[in-house]
Each structure stands twice: as C-alpha cells, then as structure tokens.
Design a protein that fits this description.
Shape of chain B: globular
Order of helices and strands of chain B: EEHHHHHHHHHHHHHHE
CATH superfamily of the largest domain in chain C: P-loop containing nucleotide triphosphate hydrolases
Radius of gyration of chain C: 24 Å
Shape of chain C: globular
Number of helices of chain C: 16
Largest sheet of chain B: 3 strands, antiparallel
Structural class of chain B: mainly alpha
Number of domains of chain C: 2
Chains: A mainly alpha (about 300), B mainly alpha (about 375), C alpha/beta (about 500)
Strand order of the largest sheet of chain B: 1-2-3
Oligomer: heterotrimer
Number of strands of chain B: 3
Radius of gyration of chain B: 22 Å
Strand content of chain B: under 5%
Structural class of chain C: alpha/beta
Helix content of chain B: 55-70%
Distance between the termini of chain C: 55 Å
Largest interface: A-B, 55 and 53 residues
Chain lengths: ~300, ~375, ~500
C-alpha cells in the first residue's frame, strides 16, 4: 500500500508542472489568444525561480520570481499580438525561441548548483498516516495551488460573470467589443495569467520536481501542455485528468528505465511525445466536438477598426 | 481606463494612433526587415551592456570579426545552406497557413537516412554515393513530414504540435542509433558513427574550406520556389488558401491537397538539408546533427518575407548569429545562447515591424 | 429652432456630423432631429451612410466633426456602453450575439454586473410576454431562427429601458408575417413615449410604420418628409436617383425546354454543430428557367448552397446536371461540368480581399486551359480576362490592379457576377446577388441574370429579399429549417403566401 501511495505522490509531482502550464494556456485560449510560447515562458520561469532561490536561499522567493518571469514574457507577447497585431502562431514561436536562449543565458553559472527544495507542507501526525497521509498531506505549495486553481478556474469559467465575459471574448471579440466589453483588457489579463501559470510550472520543475537547473530542462512539457488543452476540450477538470494521466506515464517510463527493461532508454523516452500525438489524434478526430468547445476566435488578431 | 480603440500610446498629450493604410508603399516591404535588424542590433548592444561587456566591442566581436576573412565568409555559407534550404521549403507552407514546426525532426530523419546509406556503402561506394544519399535524405524528410500531414488530414490533429513532438522522437531515435546499431566499432564507445568515406562527402567549393556544393541545391530550390510562387497554379493555390480559406474552398482547391503539398515540400527540403549536413561539415552521424537549424529556419522565412530571394539573404543574417555566438564564446567569454536570444529578438522585431505595412502610425 | 423642434425638447439632435474613411466621405454634414414617441425612418440605399451615422450615435464610431445633443444636453459617446447608459439601444442588422451562449447569457453580458441569472431569465420571459416577443431564455443562440435572434437583441435593449431604440434594417431577416408582428411591438414601444429610429430602404414598410422619414444619399440629407403622405416613387427617386430597373420578368418559359438540373431527396446532416441539417430537398430546373428559393439566414440556405456548389459532397444521384450524376463531385469537377455558383459572402469567399482583380479573375477560372496550362499561369490571358469582365460589366474603378477589398460592394459583385457569367455556365446558382449592393449595380446584376436565362442558362436564386425574387423568378419555393417547399409559378404567388412558406407553413393553400 505504501508503494502505491508513493507512486501516486510521484504521479502528482510529475503532473503538476503540466497542469500549471496547461491551465495557463487554457485561460489564454479561452480569451481567443493562442500562445505557443509556453515552453519559453516555462524555461525562463524555471531559471529565474532557481536563480532567486539560489541567491536568497528561500524557495518561496523562487516561486514568486518564476511567476513574475512568466508574466514579464507574457506581457511582451501581449504587446506584440494585442497592440502590434502580429501573427499569434509566429509570435508564440518567437517567444519560445527567445525563452530557450534567455534561460540558457541567465542559467549559465547555475548549472549544477544546489538549492533548497520547495518545502513540503507536512502536518506532524497526520502526514505520517499510512496511504492517506502522503497522498493528501505533505505536498508542497505548488501541488496544492495547481489543484486549487484548476477547480477555481472551472468555477469561474462556468459559473461567473467573469467567466462568461472570457468565453464571450474568445468566441467573438468583435461582438464583445460592440457590446462595450473591453476585449483588449480581457485578453491581456488572460495572457498575463497564462504567463504567470507557465512561469509557476517552470518554477515547479527547477524547485521541486528536480531541484536543479539544466538547459532545456522542460524538454517539451510546454508543448505537451498545449496538447493537454485540446485533450481537455478547453475544460479545466478534464484537463486535470489529462495532466495526471500524463504524469503517470512519465513516471512509468522513468521506472521502466530504472528497472532495466530490455528496451533502449531512448524508446522509453519517446513515450510522452508519442502519447501526446496519440491523444491529439484521438481528441481531434471528432471535429464537431472540437468546434463546439474550442473558442471560435482562437488565434485570430482583433483590431476594432478592421 | 481601458485604451480607446486604436490608440496605442497615450502620454500627457502625446498620443499615437494606428490608421489602416490604403496602399502599402513598395519600399516599405524591403525597409521593415532592415528596421527589424537595426532594432535587434540595438537591443543586442543593450543586452551586452547588461552582461557587463563593452557593447561596441561585443557587437564588433559578434557581427564583424567573424566575417572579416575568407574563412569567416565560407563558414557563413556553411551555416546558411541548411537555413536557406529549410526556410525555402517552409515558406510555401507558411504562405498557406500550414505550420510545419518540425523541420528539425525532418532534418534529423533525412540525416539518418543519408547517413544510413553512407554507412551501408562504406568503402564500397562510388560517384553515385552522394546522389543516393541525397535521395535517401529527401525521401526520409518527406516520409517523416507525411506523418503530421496524415494526422492533420485524416484526424484533424494540429500539425504544429504533432510535427514538433515528432522532432523529439527523431532526435531520440538518432541518439539510439549512434549509441547502438550505428556506433563506430573503432570509436572507443563514443556515441557517433564511423566517419563517412570520401565518396560520401560533399566536395568543397574551395579546397581547404568547409563550404560545399550544397550551395547548388539552395540555388536550385530558390529559383524553383520563385517560379512556383509567381508563375504557377500551385503558388496561386497556396496564396489563396493562406489569404482566404473560404475562397479556396469556393475555388475548389482541396484543403488536404494543400496540407500534403506544403508538408511534403517542407519535409523534403529539411531532409535534404540533413543529408547535406552529415555529408558536408559533419561527415558522420552524431547524437546532434543540427544546432536548431529547423527552428531558426522559421525566423529566416519570416525575415525573408517568405520571398525566395529574401530568404537567401535572411539565411546569411541568421548564419551570422550562429558564427557570431561561437566567436563570442571564445573571444568574449559569453554563453553561446546569446545567439538564440538574438534570433528570438529578431523574429519579434520582424513581426512587430510588419505592422507598419498595414497601418500608419499617426500622432494625434 | 424650426417646426417640430419647438414642441418640446428633442430626444436627439444631431448637427453637421461628418465622418470620412480612407477614400470615402461616409457621412458628410448630416442633421437629424428625433422627438419622443416618434418612429423615424432613416432611409437611403446601401452605402448612403446610414450605418455609419448610426454607429456614431451609438458610440461605436467617433465623428470627425459635428455635435450631438441628447435630451437637450451636448454629449459625445466614446463607446456603446456610454450610449446605453444614456438610454440608447441598438439592434444590429448583423446580430451581435454569441452563438454558443444561451439567450440569458447573451443578455447578461450587455447589462451591468450583479444580476442573478434566474432573476434575469424571469425578466426576459416577462418582457417577451409584454411585447409579444416569444423567446426561451435557456436556449443557445445557434439553435434560434433569425427572427428569434432579433427578439433576443430587442429584449436585450428593452431590459435597459431605452428612450431611443435604433433598428438597422430589421425586416431583412424576417418573413412578412414576422415583420408585421415586429411592427406591432414597435408601435407599442412608441406609444410608451420611446423614440424609434428605423433604418431601411424598403419604402412600403416605412409608409406603414413611420411618422417621419429622413432621406440620406451619399452621406448627405437630401430630404425629410412624412412618409404617410409622400409617394413612394418620389422617395425612391430622392433616395437613389433615377435607376432604370428591370421590370418583372414576363414568364417566357417554354414547357418543352430541356431539363437541365435536378435535385432529388437531398438530405445532409450539417458538418458544423452550429449548422442546419438539409432535409429531403427536391427541385428541378429547365434550361432558361429562373427558380427562386426564399430563405432567411439560418433556414439552411448556406448549407444548401454548399451542397449544390460542391463544397460538401452528397450521394452522386441526388444532384444531376444534364442527367449526369454530380452529387459526389467536388467543386472543381462540378464547375467543369458546367455548374457555377456565387455565394452570399463576397470578401473572403467569392473574392480574395488582398489580391488584385487579375488574380481574382482566376479564382473560378483556373481550370480553363486558356488561363492556366500545364500548371503554369498565363499572366497575359488572365489580365485580358479581368479586363473583359471590367469592361463588360462596367466595374469601377476600371483597373485590373486594384485589390478586391478596395472595391465597393456593388462593383465587386458586378465583377464576380461577370466572372461567373463569362464562364458561360449551364447552371448558375447565386445567393443574395444584390445584398449590400447599391441600386444601380443591383439593376445591372438583375439585368445580367435575366439575360443569362434568356440565353438558356438555368438559374437558381437563393435570397431573403422577396422583391428581388419576384422580379427575377419564374417559379419560387421557400426554405425552412433545412426543408424546401414545393415550387409554384411566381404568377400564382403573393408575398404573404411566400412569407408563410418561409415560416414553415409549407404549401399553405
């Protein structure tokens, strides 16, 4: 039983960065903006979080730095796509390339340095309970935060005026503008929230999942997060399930490598990427479902005079 | 207060406003990429200053010094060949809104196929080794790009994500090959293949330099792309599909046909570039056969305005970012990633400057 | 102050409003006075500046010059929210609704925050009963007919208790019967002291409904009159000048003309979840015949056009051209077989906005060996073809190098029609051929279509403009919820009868 519990805990850890980044992208996409720069924002978030944690010795400062770094990059993206009306696909790619370079530049002297891991929030007594203890208690802040934010996002999107506005802007910025809704403000907020969450996802990687910095340490998680949004058909709770499924697979793959299965490690490492493709194929096959759930204006620039 | 429609900057009586242009002056089409370049160099200076390096010295070391002799120029060509070739292939797709982001993976598979041929013919090749390798590289790239094309046309799966995921898969596969079946038996367990024999290596343009006749492939591709874009029905189909998808449906242009065409051409060019890399400057299979050419080519395509001649020039500019950062590593003790930062910045500026084509910025 | 203005404060007074866009003076010094309780018509043909003026009053556009007084006070609405807060409501011609949201959600978005959904739904029901605007608050917009969508827009305005209600071409999406119901509602609203600004170019309904009319032409007010006592002919002339309109087609159909085109039991589930399923559609067309299909937006007209044109394939035998099955063929093959079509949307569908006319001439002509051979474009031939279209159909400006987006709606439509007609099709299907087109161009297009039929082409005209259908067609049928009524000779039909057919009272005898 303890083994099962520890596996589940590890799954949650593997899933958390994906969940955070995917949730950020989901909110951004709900507002009709496609940000392909998740990978870049995660990387810069990861390196900034690590650098600050290393300098201050406090991982919580790192968390804040990671989120701020994500917001900064997202603000840059927002300036381009919302004000300068650039192509969202190309701008997102530029953001990823920029983030890869910038994170490597910032992190040059940080490779191999030790930092304090993001503390686990154990409650003495309860956390030591078998199974339930490690499963429900004794995680770090970001694990709880990612879950809380997912449920919060679900509630906001489906139940509140704010969520209604977000969906409306994502479906038709022109109609929303005609009603007097502030399209730019909604989209800007969504992009910045997306940046913060991607930054947090990156921070989780470098502060908790593997407390260290390595170039390109996200290894495609930003792109997998994008696929998770499709997997969840733009619904937070389904996406949560998807993130945990992917977490489980990442873990299985690592364990198989550890167990010395007679399959070359490279093939096992391919699994998350192949699984992403499989998921995309399975979910996208039903064009009607995608059409009903995807924000209709996704990826299109909006200018009130055009 | 939310910004008013169209107002982009408001500051104490100083307001800038976007106004749609009725006509785009021709000179502006050429001027905006130059403006983007200038802005990149300018922010580069700022970046160097931030890193504590004398900006002028750094800019000189990055952009001028590496190409101050013949060797530098030939090296520039070496890097520009794959960039131009891939970007030419991708640019067709970008015109039609087909986003093949996996050129790096298609390049890798092209390199694997070409390398496989070279190793199979090791010490038993002839003049036909190189053409055979080129064919293998081309087919490898095409076949690998066929996967996202199939997934998109049959299952509606987004080609951006699938082609990108396949890049990771291709790189892992190459890593498996060079640590396993294709590892050099006399290579002291290093993860790389045997060096190719002379028959499988691209002849240099100038004896003693690495610049090779892959140059010819770029020239042919550029001329072909120009002809296709301006004079062929295919070019017209791509343009219409990109500008107005509903009009393409009205015209009767098959959407799957466009997706297949764009991805296969892009994949073929990337595969050929992979072959040229392993048969040219690298000369064997290694765990990494490209420093991200497949991604940088995206920037090349945009900087070149998706125009074949523009792409060839842009490839030289981006090639400079590679050799500049290599030089900066040695002379300025800077991280090689400065080059990547420059590339990202450049793409930002290129995209941002495009605004000037559609809008005029007016002071109110 | 003059005339009516002395009888109290005007609800809205507009003086010297000007607005120019690059290349056009859309509104050029307009004065307008609206009194409480008045139903005021703003009439003018497409492009006269009506919509621009509306948008300025509603705060969607800012005037370059001029002033607006609202209930005696000078105002400048910077956005629609400000106009709404002041008491102005507007119902757009192109509905400003979110397809995937429900009626209640759509309405909530236009209201200040903090209203409970349940309470709002109750208010909606209440209003809908009071003004005879039947509506279910919980349905999603995409499931509603165009008449119902308009009711959503009206109720959305009424919930804010507006003192000025602007309606932009409201009957263009309604059957004649639905229009009558709307007029009852509008009269009731005016009786409550609200002002109605009614934008239209349909003179009979203005005579029936409005107290006053202001006529706009080329951005200027050309006259102001009482429509109840002014002759429609006079108003029409002031509105568009003298236009030589083709008169109603004398049915010259010969029964022995060969059968050209037939559709048998065409059914298709909509590929788009927001679309309409086509249900068992059958009709046939003889050479030289013009069949009209009356269908409002959302009745399945766009789905029918896609199926007939070939953008979606159906069973081969359901569509036959000269007795050859073509239902399974794609667009290109159907065009090669002699079937051409012109969709309703011009920019982005039947023309590429950012390409010039030479390139646009090729859009439906690329299969012709004269224009493209062996996969290579024949630039000279393309240019000559574009020049011929421009000359034959008097497209302005007569330059092959102008971008499609720079042409006015009428000129672009003439170009598109010319392109399709010069391809000499056996069957031509056109949707809303004169929608958003000025009167001169509309007359030219109608003449061209009549001429084409005279020459033996079978024509199908799908439109929601009944006047147009009555001018053009030999026989008419109506589309409702994806099903088609039986076609009857135009001579045996009245507007009322067609209206009932469009409303689903199929084949009302």
């Amino acid at each position: 039983m303890d083994i099962a519990a520890s596996i589940l805990v590890a799954v949650m850890m593997a899933a958390t960065p994906l969940l955070l980044a995917a949730l950020g992208e989901l909110i951004t996409e709900k507002a009709g903006v496609l940000n392909l720069g998740i990978e870049g924002m995660m990387l810069v978030g990861a390196v900034c979080a690590f650098a600050v944690a290393y300098k201050t010795g406090n991982a919580y400062f790192g968390v804040v730095a990671g989120a701020l770094a994500g917001v900064t990059l997202a603000a840059f993206f927002a300036l381009l796509v919302l004000v300068l009306l650039t192509n969202q696909v190309a701008t997102g790619l530029a953001l990823t390339l920029f983030g890869i370079g910038l994170s490597a530049l910032i992190g040059k002297g940080l490779v191999g340095q030790p930092i304090p891991r993001l503390p686990l929030l154990s409650i003495p007594g309860i956390s030591d309970l078998p199974v339930v203890g490690p499963l429900l208690f004794g995680h770090d802040l970001l694990v709880y935060l990612s879950l809380a934010l997912t449920f919060l996002a679900h509630r906001i999107i489906t139940r509140t005026r704010l969520g209604l506005t977000l969906r409306a802007v994502g479906e038709s910025p022109h109609v929303a503008h005609g009603l007097g809704l502030s399209v730019r403000r909604v989209q800007l907020s969504a992009i910045l929230i997306g940046g913060a969450l991607s930054g947090l996802g990156g921070a989780y990687l470098s502060l908790a999942y593997t407390p260290m910095w390595a170039e390109n340490m996200t290894s495609g998680r930003g792109w997998i997060a994008l696929a998770l949004v499709v997997f969840g058909t733009w619904r937070p709770l389904r996406m949560l399930a998807g993130a945990y499924l992917f977490g489980a697979m990442t873990l299985a793959q690592l364990h198989l490598q550890g167990l010395g299965v007679p399959i070359p490690s490279q093939f096992l490492s391919m699994l998350p990427y192949l699984a992403t493709i499989l998921v995309l194929v399975l979910m996208s096959r039903d064009a009607v479902r995608i059409k009903l759930n995807a924000p209709a204006a996704l990826g299109k620039s909006f200018h009130p005079d055009r | 207060m939310p910004p008013k429609a169209g107002v982009i900057l408001a500051k104490r009586g100083f307001r800038l406003r976007l106004e749609a242009r009725t006509e785009t002056p021709r000179w502006l089409i050429y001027a905006t990429p130059l403006l983007a370049l200038a802005l990149t160099v300018l922010s580069g200076a700022g970046l160097f200053a931030l890193l504590g390096v004398d900006p002028l010295r750094a800019l000189y070391g990055f952009f001028i010094e590496p190409i101050s002799d013949l060797y530098g120029w030939t090296e520039l060509g070496v890097k520009a060949i794959p960039l131009a070739l891939i970007a030419l292939g991708l640019s067709l797709g970008f015109r039609a809104n087909v986003w093949n982001i996996g050129a790096e993976g298609q390049l890798t598979i092209g390199a694997i196929c070409a390398g496989g041929v070279a190793l199979a013919l090791w010490n038993s090749g002839g003049w036909w080794s190189l053409p055979l390798m080129a064919l293998a590289g081309l087919c490898g790239g095409i076949a690998y790009a066929a996967i996202p094309a199939l997934l998109r046309t049959q299952f509606n799966a987004n080609e951006i994500l699938t082609s990108l995921m396949l890049t990771y898969v291709a790189q892992l596969f190459l890593s498996y090959l060079v640590t396993g079946p294709l590892r050099d038996p006399d290579g002291f367990n290093f993860p790389q293949s045997r060096p190719f024999d002379a028959d499988a290596l691209m002849p240099p343009v100038l004896e003693g330099f690495r610049l090779h006749w892959g140059l010819l492939a770029v020239a042919v591709a550029a001329v072909a792309a120009q002809a296709v874009l301006t004079r062929s029905l295919l070019g017209y189909r791509l343009t219409v599909t990109g500008l107005a998808p509903a009009a393409a449906r009205f015209a009767g242009f098959s959407a799957p046909g466009i997706i297949w065409t764009c991805l296969l051409i892009g994949g073929g060019c990337a595969g050929l570039a992979g072959m040229l890399e392993v048969a040219g400057p690298i000369g064997q299979l290694m765990p990494t056969v490209s420093p991200g050419y497949g991604f940088t080519a995206i920037i090349v395509a945009f900087l070149g305005r998706l125009n074949p001649l523009g792409i060839c020039v842009a490839a030289l500019v981006l090639a400079l970012s590679y050799i500049g950062s290599e030089a900066a590593q040695v002379t300025l003790k800077l991280s090689a990633s400065v080059g990547t930062v420059f590339q990202g910045l450049l793409l930002f500026f290129v995209l941002a400057c495009d605004l000037l084509l559609l809008y005029r910025i007016r002071r109110e | 102050m003059t005339g009516s203005e002395t009888h109290g404060t005007a609800r809205l007074r507009v003086r010297g409003i000007k607005k120019h866009f690059p290349g056009v003076r859309a509104v050029d010094g307009v004065d307008l006075t609206l009194m409480p309780g008045e139903i005021h018509a703003l009439i003018g043909e497409n492009g006269a500046g009506k919509s621009t003026l509306m948008k300025i009053i509603y705060g969607l556009l800012q005037a370059d010059d001029g002033s607006i007084w609202w209930e005696g006070a000078a105002v400048a609405f910077t956005d629609p929210a400000a106009a709404r807060a002041a008491g102005i409501g507007m119902v757009f011609q192109h509905f400003a609704l979110f397809e995937t949201l429900t009626v209640t959600e759509n309405i909530a978005l236009a209201l200040p925050e903090g209203r409970a959904t349940a309470a709002l739904a109750a208010d909606i029901l209440d209003l809908s009963k009071r003004y005879g605007l039947a509506l279910d608050p919980h349905r999603a917009i995409h499931a509603l007919s165009s008449g119902e969508r308009q009711r959503v827009e009206i109720i959305r305005c009424l919930l804010q208790d507006p003192r000025l209600l602007i309606l932009d071409e409201p009957t263009s999406v309604l059957t004649p019967q639905e229009a009558e119901t709307l007029f009852v509602t509008l009269r009731r609203l005016a009786a409550e002291g609200r002002t109605i600004l009614y934008i239209s170019h349909k003179l009979p309904e203005i005579q029936a409904l409005c107290d006053r009319a202001t006529i706009l032409r080329a951005g200027k007010v050309v006259d102001s009159c009482d429509p109840r006592v002014t002759s429609p002919a006079l108003m029409a002339e002031k509105m568009v000048g003298k236009v030589d309109r083709p008169s109603r087609r004398a049915t010259s159909l010969k029964a022995e003309a060969p059968l050209r085109f037939s559709v048998q039991n065409l059914s298709r589930k909509a590929g788009d979840p927001l679309g309409i399923d086509l249900r068992d559609i059958s009709f046939s067309l003889r050479a030289g015949e013009i069949l009209g299909i009356a269908g409002l937006a959302g009745s399945g007209q766009s789905e029918l056009l896609a199926a007939l044109g070939g953008e979606v394939a159906v069973a081969a035998n359901t569509i036959r051209l000269d007795d050859q099955p073509i239902g399974a063929l794609p667009v290109a093959a159907r065009r090669a077989a002699g079937l051409s079509y012109v969709p309703e949307e011009r920019l982005g569908r039947s023309a590429v906005p950012d390409l010039d006319l030479t390139a646009n001439a090729l859009l439906s002509g690329w299969q012709r060996p004269a224009l493209v051979s062996g996969g290579w474009l024949k630039r000279g031939a393309m240019q000559a073809f574009a020049e011929k279209i421009i000359a034959d159909y008097r497209v302005m400006p007569p330059k092959t190098g102008s971008l499609a987006r720079r042409l006015s709606g009428g000129n672009l439509q003439k170009f598109i029609m010319g392109r399709e007609i010069l391809a000499n099709p056996k069957v031509l299907i056109v949707a809303a051929p004169t929608w958003g087109v000025d009167a001169g161009a509309a007359a030219a297009i109608h003449r061209a279509l009549l001429g084409l039929a005279e020459a033996g082409t079978a024509l199908l005209v799908i439109s929601q403009d009944l006047d147009e259908l009555f001018i053009l067609c030999d026989r008419m049928a109506a589309l409702f919820h994806g099903g088609l009524s039986l076609a009857s000779p135009t001579a045996e039909l009245s507007r009322e009868r067609v209206g009932l057919m469009m409303g689903g009272v199929a084949d009302a005898a």
